[in-house]
């Protein structure tokens, strides 16, 4: 489970980095809180952060359940795939939102894998 914990920390650090990038984009754009519109670059950074948060709500519990009930190494590798998918997602989205698809797809498949392996592991344990 140490690898699962390490990947969890990596995902939390990634989210923190995305949050800090939103703060920097807000400062560059001059958009005052609580506004979240008005500058395309800020809006893209903000959407990356919020989309990542939405995905983490699914991914983190599935990561831990998969690691506990299925296989910690498989769970960690799927979590790492999610991490890499988010890196690609961000790179594509800030360049052109139409280019976010490959990164999203990798993250989605990784999360689906985590959910399915967690489900399999829990049912097997029953």
* CATH fold-level assignment: Four Helix Bundle (Hemerythrin (Met), subunit A)
- What is the H/E string? HHHH
Structural class: mainly alpha
Q: Percent of residues in beta strands?
A: under 5%
The structural domain count equals: 1
User: Overall mean pLDDT score?
Assistant: 97
Fourth-level CATH superfamily = Membrane associated eicosanoid/glutathione metabolism-like domain
Cα shape: elongated
Number of separate strands: 0
| Estimated helix fraction | over 70%
Flag low-confidence runs: none
Question: Mind sketching the topology for me?
Answer:
Elements: H1 2-29, H2 40-69, H3 72-95, H4 101-125
Helix pairs in contact: 1-2, 1-3, 2-3, 2-4, 3-4
Descriptive account of the structure:
- The chain has 126 residues and is mostly helical.
- It has one domain (2-120): Membrane associated eicosanoid/glutathione metabolism-like domain (Four Helix Bundle (Hemerythrin (Met), subunit A)).
- It is built from 4 helices and no strands.
- The chain has helices at 2-29, 40-69, 72-95, 101-125.
- Helix 1 runs antiparallel to helix 2, helix 2 (40-69) runs parallel beside helix 4 (101-125) and helix 3 runs antiparallel to helix 4 (101-125).
- It is elongated.
Tags for this model:
126 residues, mainly alpha, Four Helix Bundle (Hemerythrin (Met), subunit A)
């Amino acid at each position: 489970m140490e690898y699962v914990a390490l990947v969890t920390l990596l995902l939390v650090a990634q989210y923190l980095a995305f949050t800090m990038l939103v703060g920097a984009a807000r400062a560059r754009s001059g958009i005052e809180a609580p506004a979240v519109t008005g500058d395309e670059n800020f809006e893209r950074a903000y959407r990356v952060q919020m989309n990542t948060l939405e995905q983490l709500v699914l991914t983190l519990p599935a990561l831990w359940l998969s690691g506990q009930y299925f296989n910690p190494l498989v769970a960690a590798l799927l979590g790492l795939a999610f991490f890499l998918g988010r890196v690609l997602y961000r790179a594509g989205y800030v360049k052109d939102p139409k280019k976010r698809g490959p990164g999203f797809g990798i993250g989605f498949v990784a999360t689906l894998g985590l959910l399915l392996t967690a489900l399999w592991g829990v049912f097997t344990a029953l």
